[in-house]
Design brief:
Blueprint lengths: L10 H7 L4 E7 L2 E7 L1 H7 L3 H4 L4 H4 L1 E2 L3 H11 L3 E9 L6 E9 L7 E7 L1 H14 L4 H27 L4 H28 L7 E3 L1 H14 L5 E6 L7 E3 L1 H17 L5 E9 L4 E3 L5 E3 L2 E7 L27 H11 L3 E7 L2 E8 L25
Parallel strand pairs: 8-10
Antiparallel strand pairs: 1-2, 1-6, 3-4, 4-5, 5-6, 7-9, 10-13, 11-12, 13-15, 14-15
The chain binds adenosine-5'-diphosphate (ADP) and magnesium ion (MG).
């Protein structure tokens, strides 16, 4: 085999082809600024390299680990650092569990290479198999399609990025358009995938405040960066009986809508309280009591009159670029939890209230004292 016959790919092509988000970081006065990032990182962040450049990396990317410290250590030791199984928030979606690597490039400027490998990939495979089994239903088909379309889209965005390197500024507008629109389609497909996710909730005892704080942190670094968040928690609230990932999705969707209702900024108040009196009929005809309440309140303009009766229906949106899937997903998840959601809205105040059941008492078996809900545990998907 003649190695010389192969022309090795140029570094730029490797950068673009790399299927995991990658960033180049520079230390500027103790802050790690983004020098550059690859197309996989742009898709991951839902932002272009141009928008990300010179931004402090760990403001845009909330990683549940002391990243500034780890970066400094990688530079000093001139050795890579691996951090596994950490939550990474990019703002627009629930935190993703990732393996993170920081490697010094060993150049005079002491650039760092940050690689973020979502562990989601393993979970995804499992999910695809499930979706194939559910392919009979239309929504299962939509989800499968969404999944299949997303991969080539990443390729299209990458190719456009590569093309743009040799183009005049005028022509580059066109490749930027491709990248921008591709990203929008990926976001829509993400929502279709989530909506079609038929997984029944894996309900267990969870501390709702942990979920609320995770959602709030995610919002604060992303879609809700322009909002002020207030909380009014009842610290004695008993555990709720819910799937933590699905509940997180519910809260994120509500926070996102509240943030989008006030593009110029405003206040979001998250409140929890205990109040008996609300009951629904459970799946087996039983009466289920819903005494645990979470309210998301904003001081925006209120629901648009024309759609206020139908906001929980799929594809009903009052926003130009809305999909109308956010609240449909919320209501689907809450229904699967035997819970209840309602909204009160007037100009200047909109309150979504989610009501959930307590953990059902276990009849016979002695209770094990294993994991205390609410501890700062890592969850694998
Ligand atoms: N907090 C809110 N304040 C005002 N309007 C809201 C709020 N939450 C939801 N809405 C309205 O409900 C519509 C449906 O929301 P949703 O189902 O999340 O879809 P989307 O956000 O994609 O439009 C929104 O487009 C918006 O008009
Ligand atoms: Mg929405």
């Amino acid at each position: 085999m003649n190695a010389a016959a192969h022309t090795p790919p140029v570094p730029g092509a490797i950068w673009s082809a790399l299927p995991v988000p990658a960033f180049l970081l520079a230390d500027r006065g103790g802050k790690e600024l983004i020098l550059d990032c690859n197309p996989a990182a742009e898709l991951f962040m839902s932002a272009s390299a141009g928008q990300l450049r010179n931004d402090p990396a760990f403001d845009r990317l909330a990683i549940d680990a002391p990243m500034e410290e780890a970066s400094a250590r990688a530079r000093i030791n001139k050795a890579p650092i691996f951090i596994n199984d950490v939550d990474v928030c990019t703002g627009d979606r629930p935190p993703v569990v990732c393996n993170v690597q920081i490697a010094p490039m060993n150049d005079p400027a002491e650039t760092l290479l940050l690689l973020i490998a979502p562990r989601e990939i393993a979970g995804r495979l499992g999910r695809t198999r499930m979706v194939k089994a559910a392919a009979k239903s239309a929504i299962g088909m939509a989800e499968m399609l969404a999944h299949e379309i997303k991969n080539p889209l990443a390729g299209i965005a990458g190719a456009a990025q590569l093309l743009s390197m040799n183009l005049s500024a005028e022509d580059r507008e066109l490749t930027d358009l491709i990248v921008h629109e591709t990203r929008r389609i990926v976001q829509l497909l993400d929502q279709v995938e989530q909506f079609g996710d038929q997984r029944p909730p894996e309900r267990r005892a969870i501390n709702v405040h942990d979920v609320l704080e995770r959602a709030r942190r995610s919002a604060e670094v992303g879609f809700g960066a322009h909002m002020v968040f207030l909380d009014d928690y009842d610290p004695s609230l008993p555990d709720v009986f819910a799937d933590p990932d699905q509940l997180l999705q519910v809260i994120l969707n509500l926070l996102k809508n509240a943030s989008e209702a006030q593009p110029g900024g405003g206040t979001i108040k998250i409140r929890t309280y205990f109040e008996r009196g609300l009951n629904v009929q459970g799946f087996d005809g039983r009466r289920v009591s819903l005494p645990l309440h979470v309210e998301i309140q904003d001081d925006g303009p209120g629901l648009p009159e024309a759609i206020s009766e139908n906001i929980f229906e799929p594809f009903v949106s009052g926003r130009e670029n809305g999909t109308g899937l956010g609240l449909a997903l919320v209501s689907k998840i809450i229904a699967a939890h035997e819970g209840w959601i309602e909204v009160r809205s007037r100009p200047g105040q909109t309150v979504f209230r989610v009501s959930l059941p307590m953990v059902p008492p276990k009849p016979a078996a002695p209770r094990s004292v294993d994991r205390k809900p609410g501890a700062n545990k890592k969850e694998s998907h």
